[in-house]
């Protein structure tokens, strides 16, 4: 049985706690490895070593740090297939989808190659007689990244790229369900020239997360995961004086106007609703057609498309549309929610429960499910299902549809399909959601923009990647400097305005 430890000071080390958790192969339902769960002492040691390594790294000129990012990017490209297979093996997503997971992370590293431009300060000369004011952006010191299971490459890369390019050291705590990719990325960073100790990968569960939050040396925490944990981490980090950005769960709606191209809308819903088995924080889980005619037209197009979807293990070939969900518990939860939807009066148009994949009977597979006539009070509407389940909520009007999105407690992503520019503009302007798609179902912004939800989808005031990330991972120091031509004017005791 493979045992996964921690990556400390540029080497793999075994865990000392004697506590492990199983890493499953979701396609077979078998245990494929076990990962060590670090103790508080192990975490504190990793942080202390990172703090030592950060001094030199933080003082390294930004261009040299950027060159490490350049070499890292090249190594990610060279190892793309290996990384994709590693992601697929632990997560269960298909190889083409796993390549996307790596690619969207790599794109953030590409922006980090230009980090020196983001790290420039500001300057006002002659702010007063003989006085200049300038500001500089300096690294925080040691920061932490705590990441979810569903993007084992992309989200660790979103965390480590900007943090390291800014001159910080990082403690990365990947999901205990998908730990291998983060360790391999750390090894590639070492090959790219990152000094040992600057990135430590510490595996574990709640115990190690709490140790990160309580460690006085850790200055900032970037979290991605479910909303209750995001809110908890934000609160505890803030109480301990750390800056935190914590991204949570989602319930993403797509409005379909009567003038939309129905075939394109249906194709978009299939990809955004069922891709990666619905285990994306930007998945569309609620379709909101405006008017019964639109709703019926959509169902008519969705059903045959859903029936054609191929569910299976990633090893079955690139024509597999999606794989298993992450655990048996997750599968049971999804099936339980489907049962609740039926009980609470929604119409189950396609039932994905009971799917069997030959040769993979113990895998955590859920077939695609489609509900119609879902209402606001149902559990399938209120909860993030995080599985291949698409719910259709019928809206009477555009305002009705818009208000549904506005009233929802989550605000990660949303989309509208329409042929009318005026409706699209109105939607983009009024909706209270962080990322909006117009005839585009999963509007994950490119890496030189920035990613973040609103409402209960994010806690903290800066987004991840893009310019916000460089603000999050640095603090501003402002210097007011006066150079005397001589001390002939004598000292002034007044606290006076610049004149
Ligand atoms: P999760 O919240 O269970 O776990 C995320 C991380 O928190 C893991 O590293 C885990 O070890 C740790 N953790 C879990 N329970 C904890 C506890 N009680 N105390 C402290 N730490 C704890 O999330 P997940 O199941 O791995 O990921 C799926 C969730 O992440 C979904 O809700 C999804 O929407 C969300 N997500 C959000 C974004 C975003 O950017 N908004 C992106 C991807 C995923």
UniProtKB/TrEMBL annotation:
- Keywords, sorted A to Z: NAD, Oxidoreductase
Q: Which Pfam families match?
A: Aldedh
Q: Which domain of life is it from?
A: Bacteria
Which Gene Ontology molecular function entries are recorded, alphabetically?
methylmalonate-semialdehyde dehydrogenase (acylating, NAD) activity
Write out the transmembrane intervals. Answer: none
Q: Where is the Aldehyde dehydrogenase domain?
A: 15-479
Q: Does the keyword NAD apply?
A: yes
Name used for this protein in its record = methylmalonate-semialdehyde dehydrogenase (CoA acylating)
Q: Which InterPro entries match?
A: Ald_DH/histidinol_DH, Ald_DH_C, Ald_DH_CS_CYS, Ald_DH_N, Aldehyde_DH_dom, MeMal-semiAld_DH
EC number(s): the record gives: 1.2.1.27
One GO process term, biological-process aspect: thymine catabolic process
């Amino acid at each position: 049985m493979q045992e996964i430890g921690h990556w400390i000071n540029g080497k793999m080390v075994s865990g000392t706690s004697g506590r492990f958790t199983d890493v499953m192969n979701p396609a077979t339902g078998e245990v494929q490895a076990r990962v060590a769960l670090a103790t508080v002492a192990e975490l504190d040691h990793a942080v202390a070593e990172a703090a030592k390594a950060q001094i030199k790294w933080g003082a390294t000129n930004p261009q040299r740090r950027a060159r490490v990012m350049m070499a890292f990017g090249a190594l990610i490209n060279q190892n793309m297939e290996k990384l994709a297979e590693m992601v697929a093996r632990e997560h269960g997503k298909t190889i083409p989808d796993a390549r996307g997971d790596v690619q969207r992370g790599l794109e953030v590293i590409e922006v980090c190659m230009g980090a020196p431009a983001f790290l420039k300060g500001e300057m006002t000369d002659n702010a007063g007689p003989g006085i200049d004011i300038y500001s500089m952006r300096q690294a925080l010191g040691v920061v932490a990244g705590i990441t979810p299971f569903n993007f084992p490459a992309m989200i660790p890369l979103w965390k480590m790229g900007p943090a390291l390019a800014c001159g910080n050291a990082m403690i990365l705590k990947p999901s205990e369900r998908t730990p291998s990719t983060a360790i391999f990325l750390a090894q590639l960073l070492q090959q790219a020239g990152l000094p040992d100790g600057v990135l430590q990968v510490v595996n574990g569960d709640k115990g190690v997360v709490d140790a990160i939050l309580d460690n006085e040396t850790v200055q900032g925490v970037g979290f991605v995961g479910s909303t209750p944990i995001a809110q908890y981490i934000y609160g505890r980090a803030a109480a301990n004086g750390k800056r935190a950005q914590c991204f949570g769960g989602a319930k993403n709606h797509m409005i379909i106007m009567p003038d939309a191209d129905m075939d394109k809308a249906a194709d978009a819903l299939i990809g955004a609703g069922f891709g990666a088995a619905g285990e994306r924080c930007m998945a569309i889980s609620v379709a909101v057609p405006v008017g019964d005619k639109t709703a019926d037209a959509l169902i008519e197009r969705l059903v045959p498309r859903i029936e054609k979807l191929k569910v299976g293990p990633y090893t079955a070939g690139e024509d597999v549309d999606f794989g298993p969900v992450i655990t048996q518990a997750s599968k049971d939860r999804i099936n339980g929610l489907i049962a609740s939807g039926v009980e609470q009066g929604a119409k189950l148009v396609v039932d994905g429960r009971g799917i069997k994949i030959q040769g993979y009977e113990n895998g955590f597979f859920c077939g695609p499910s489609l509900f119609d006539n879902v209402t606001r009070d149902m559990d399938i509407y209120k909860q993030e299902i995080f599985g291949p389940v698409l719910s259709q909520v019928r809206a009477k009007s555009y305002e009705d549809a818009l208000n549904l999105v506005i009233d929802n407690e989550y605000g990660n992503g949303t989309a509208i399909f329409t042929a009318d520019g005026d409706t699209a503009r109105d939607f983009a302007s009024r909706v209270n959601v962080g990322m909006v798609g117009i005839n585009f179902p999963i509007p994950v912004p490119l890496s030189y923009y920035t990613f973040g939800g609103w409402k209960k989808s994010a806690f903290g005031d800066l987004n991840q990647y893009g310019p916000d990330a460089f603000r999050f991972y640095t603090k501003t120091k402002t210097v007011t400097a006066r150079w005397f031509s001589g001390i002939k004017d004598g000292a002034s005791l007044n606290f006076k305005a610049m004149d």
